[in-house]
Structures are given as C-alpha cells and as structure tokens.
Amino acid sequence: MCETVGVPEASQHETLLIVDFGGQYTQLIARKVREQNVFSRIVAWNSPSLAAAWSRARAAILSGGPKSVLDPQSPSLDPALLDQGKPVLGICYGHQLLAKLVGGKVLKAAAGEYGRQKIKPCEGSALIRDPGFVWMSHFDTVSELPPGFSLSAQTDTCPIAAMENASKKIFSVQFHPEVSHTEHGFEILSRFLFDEAGFAGDWTPRNFVDETVELIRKRVGGGKVLCAVSGGVDSTVAAALLANAIGPRLTCVFVDHGLLRKNEAEEVIESFRAHIPAHLVFYNASKQFLSALKGVSDPEEKRRIIGAEFIRVFEAHADELKDCSFLAQGTLYPDVVESGSPTASKIKTHHNVGGLPDWMKMELIEPLRDLFKDEVRRVGYALGLPAAMIDREPFPGPGLAVRILGEITEDKLRMTREADHIFREELRVTGLNVGIWQSYAALLDVKSVGVMGDERTYQHAVALRAVISADAMTAHAANLPHELLERVATRIVNEVRGVNRVLYDYTSKPPATIEWE
Ligand code: XMP
Predict the structure, then answer these.
(1) At what angle do helices 410-430 and 482-495 cross, to 10 degrees?
(2) Which H or E element spans position 489?
(3) Hey, which residues are catalytic here?
(4) What is the pTM of this model?
C-alpha cells in the first residue's frame, strides 16, 4: 500500500490564508509573506476546505485572477466569511471582488491599466503612506466606494486604486504589492501583516527545523526511513532534517549512474559523511546504466532507461533496504499547490512512486512539502549545512546523459566532464558564477575540421551554456565577458583530447530549453 503521510499541517503557526482566484502572482504573494516570517497557505476559492482554512487563519489575502467580477459565473467568496472579523487584504481581482461583495461598484473601464503607474496616497491611510510607482494589470475598475470605506490611494487613471475600512480591518489595492516593480510593496504587506493583523512573525527556519524534527519523531516512532539522495539541495535538506530527528534509523542511498560530473560522486559522499549524521549507502551502478544506454541517442529514451535502471538498482538491494517502513521524498510546496486539493496531491504522490517495486511502496514522509525552494535553502543553513551543499546549481536527474548529444560512450563522458570542469572552474575563480542559475558544457554530436600543430583535426564541438533564471521556467543566457569565454575555449581545446571547437549558447528559454536534450 502506498499512502502519503507528510508532516501534518503546520497548524501551530499563525497562518495567513491566501484565497487563490487563479492569479499569476499567487505563489509570489505566499513567498513575500513568508519572507516576513509569516506562514502562508494557498487555498483555491472553490476548495471545500476554504471555510475551515478561513476560520483557522489569523488573516486573509484575496489574490488576483484573470476573470471579471462583472461576469455572474466568475469566482467569488461567501460574504459571511467577511463578517468573522478577520483582517482581509484584497489584491487586484480581490480588490474588485471585495468592492462587489460589500456594496461598492465595479465597472468595465474605457481602457485597461497595465504596467507602472504613479500612486498618490490619501491622508491617514493605514497601509499606503508613500507615493511611488506601483504595478497595475487590470481592465475592470472600482468606480464607487462601498459604504463605510474610505479612499486610500489614486493614480491618474484609477480613481479608487486602494480603499479601506479601518474599523473592520478590510483593505484592498488595485495594484500588486507583491511584485518587485511596486515601490514600497513590501512595506504595504508588512503593515497589513503586523500593524493590522498582529502577526508575531514566528515562521523562521529555526522554528521550522525544531517543529519538523519533533513531528518526524512522532510520525516515525521506532521505525526506519529510506531516503534516496542525489547531492541536490532538496534531498540533502530532507535527509539532514531526518538525520536530526532519527539519526541512525535513517538510511540514505546514493546511486552513481555513471553520468555525474567530474569528482561529483566523491564530493557528494564526502560532504554527506561530514555533515549528515546518518547511514549512507553508496551504489556504483555506472556499468549497469552505461550498458543499458549503449547505442541509444533519443533523449526521451535515455530518460526512460535511466528511470528503469534506478528501479533495478533498488530491486537488486531489496534485502538490505526493506526493513525501512518509510520512504522520504523532497516534495516542495509548489508541487502541492499545483496539484490543487490535498486529495489531488495524494494522487500526484502516488503517481511519483508508481514505478517503484512493491516493497518500496511504503509510507511517505515529505518534510519539505510546506516550503518554497528559497525556504529550503534557509532551512539548510539553519541546519548548519555548508554553502557548497545548499547553493549548488540544479543538476538534472539523468545527468550528463542529456548533455551528451547522441549516443553516450566512455570517451564522450570523459570529454564532457573535462570541458565542464574547466568552464565551471573558470566561472568560480573569477566569481562570475554568482547569480548564474546553471552552467555547463554540452558535447555536441557534431565534428568539425581544425588544425593543431600543423595537422588537420576532425573532432567534437562543445557548447557552453550559462543561464540566468528564477525558477527554470524561463531563462536567458548570462552575459559573460569575452575574455573569459576565450580563455575557457583555449583551455578546452588544449586540455581536452578530442575537442577542437567551443561555442557559447546565447539562446533564451523559450524557445530553447536550459538543457540541450
Ligand atoms: P529544461 O531543459 O526543460 O530544464 O529547460 C528545466 C530544469 O529542469 C532540469 N531538467 C531535469 N531535471 N530530470 C531532472 O531531474 C530531467 O529529466 C530533467 N530535464 C531537465 C534542468 O536541469 C533545469 O534545471
């Protein structure tokens, strides 16, 4: 049987509820609130658990959304919730919905208002005190204040850009205080959270660690936990939390599929042994993976084979591992939110472990399921893990298999590893790696003519890729200095046997992807 048993809801924390009306910035609101040490939870406007979540929350934010409140079918909110006396902040669609629910008027404006607008605060507004630019993105507009509300701010084109009913602690803004383009947006959220809603700001990485360790201990009792680790930040932090909670009853498994970067397996093992007090099992399955990949060039086929071989490794070691009754996974909050309701998230978790052998379908522990990626990093630091483990660039599960175009051979792995090592070493020593999301060298399935020592060469080409990104959904090429690229190119063709040409990939995502395959 496979059942999700994550760490229970962090209900002991004061919670800010974010009612999601389908806004593109809803997760950003949640992160901006958490940055101020306030725990936030996103619940869809039509979720059956909304009323319960509302009554547990200290305050609520109503998010933006793509619909028009003038459409009778549009997402709404039970107005009785507004009578519970909880502080509420409406943002964009939430501003218009509040106006509609409490007796104001909303109109389709003659023209929409998009982008930066200068805001003028009104005397005495509780949340908005500073003039400055704000980020707008709306078509409908609030044209008449609801009874009991006063105007908080205007722009040249938006007469009711913000409003408030201070005695009922209901506030709303047409613009987006959560985006970085809104000057003073952080202060507006902060005044709402602390001055109006009275949050204590108890959502700190240290508190999270202490509470999660306690919850894991209760959940696991005297049982044993299996945690597959890759060296990536999510599995590392999950393992560190578990190790703090149950120490020797945690078994971490690290599989070398032969597709890691230069010295990577040794470095992962060394840093785990130094910083994570748990039992680490290392399986070197390089030969098995490389023989399964022999002759395969299709990227999706490579991924499928690698997934299947991972399962075979675990099957082969079932006897050593099967006294574990829990399986730890590094699921993050965006995965939980994106799968919608708590029920849907279970389906997704099921799906994730669907290919595992029966003995591995254990109870799941997901200690990071309440966290965003940046919070995982903060928790990693609170656990005392070193920057080298926490600030590591993401590395794809199939490793160099998706960075060697065409068939994978030992010789191509050698060339890729060496070229990649040179590029990333030069970035590191010059400090130019700071701010880069991912950087690597890919080996192209292309040979070209060159000349070395008066001899003609016909060898491989390497593409360097370094991208700036916030979440891997979109990315653009890092603007690296010509001198650096020239030095890296010279070093690669001189030091890596079999490579005679080096290119830099300037393509953004979209239309390209971050990986070449
Ligand atoms: P793309 O290439 O789609 O990559 O722009 C987006 C992010 O996902 C990583 N990536 C993968 N990670 N298994 C993984 O675990 C994969 O098959 C895979 N493919 C891409 C990539 O490194 C980037 O961070």
Answers:
(1) 150
(2) helix 482-495
(3) 92, 176, 178
(4) 0.82
